[in-house]
Amino acid sequence: MDHFLPYLLLERRNVGKRDRQRSWHNAFRLLFAQPLDDIKALLLGFAYLGSMRTLPPTLYRAATVPPNDLGVSGEYAAQMLQARQTDHVHYPLPLQVEANEIQIPDEVRARSLPEAVNDVLGALGVGASLEIDERDVGFRLLFGKASLQHVGRGISYLLPVVELGLLADPLRFKPDLGDVPLEKYQEACPEFAHCALEEPESHLHPKIQTRLAHWFVALAMARRQLLVETHSDHLVRRLRGLAARAKPGSDLESWLLNYVRVVQVEQEDGRSLLKMLTLTPQGGLENWPADFMDEATDEERSIYDASLDKPAEATPAAPEGPAVEHDPGEEPDIGP
User: 193, 200, 231, 203: which is closest to 214 by C-alpha?
Assistant: First the structure.
């Protein structure tokens, strides 16, 4: 922390009462002491999760002391679950979207950490439930009847994302506050938690990427401030879709327009330029930038235009030879 934040020391033994150095010291403290203390407090409570994950082992070693965080790669996610399996966290469920109807969570739940993980995973569309299988020499994480090592990368990438949102609870591990309305929880929180996630959509099914937007919005409503770095068109498009679906003049529409920002990063002359974009009530972005996540729509337009040039004929028979087969009902990673 000392290498990040500036500080000023004054050797009082060699400085008189009217020395200019003392005046500079007093001015520095007057102007910067409080802001620097605030930044230091923010950074000390800042949670960060990168985009890489370590390969899950077959058997985890139980932690003698509960870890303080998940690690930048989620390497302590399993130990956190095992060590904190009786401790409670407070969380809202993700938004539920049916056609053009959006259900906002009006309750913040208090559950043990494993129960909360299963609750959120189920709301995101993951059918298998998590279970901690204790052994004499360690423990395993089971999803259904399979260990974490054998259920594909999607679950191992998603689990720390869900845990980070749960552990960012400003009232975590405090069981005094049970299930309460969202407004009462907001009043009980002394401060906001701050989290940064890098490419949380990695190895996830497109439908799960879409539902991450529901989870992040719900978390932000529950005293978590999130900074999400993403390349997922599905996630950004669903944020736009929520704004378009929200009823005109509703609290949800107002919240989305005021508290969701899309920051575009562009390279110009070797420098990174940031452009802040806001949602519109119609689901667009103010000052829509050129070439912003438009690959999917451009390709759909190209497919449609190309199909008009082809006559409506019977599909030709496939040529003989080897083929690549894929069962569409069998996803290599997690599915809805």
Answer: 200
Tokens encoding 220: 């932000």
Question: Per-residue pLDDT tens for 171-202?
Answer: 989 878 899 999 999 999 988 999 999 999 99
pLDDT at 217: 97
CATH assignment of 24-250, given 1.20.120, 1.10.3470, 3.30.70, 3.40.50?
Answer: 3.40.50
Minimal CA–CA distance to 205: which of 179, 232, 224, 227? 232
The pLDDT value given to residue 331: 44
CA distance 243 to 108: 23
The pTM (predicted TM-score) of the whole model is: 0.82
- Residue the block writes with tokens 């736009």: 240
Task: Give the CA distances from residue 297 to residues 233, 291, 305, in Å, rounded to whole numbers and listed in that order.
Answer: 11, 11, 12
Per-residue pLDDT at 151: 87
Chain-centre distance for alpha carbon 255: 18
Q: Mean pLDDT over all residues of the chain? A: 86
Average pLDDT over residues 149-167: 92
In the beta sheet, which residues pair with residue 285?
Answer: 279
Amino acid at 279: L
Neighbours of 136 (CB within 10 A): 5
Give me the mean pLDDT over the 91-103 stretch.
93
Beta bridge partners, 272, equal 267
Alpha-carbon 32 to chain mean position? 32
CB 272 within 8 A of CB 264: no
pLDDT, residue 68, reads: 87
DSSP 157-223: HHHHHHHHHHHT-TTTT-TTS-SEEHHHHHHH-SS-EEEEEE-TTTT--HHHHHHHHHHHHHHHHTT
- Which phi and psi (to 5°) does residue 239 adopt? -60, -40
* CA angle (139 as vertex; 208, 90 as ends), nearest 5: 50
Q: Which residue do the tokens 């980070």 mark?
A: 164
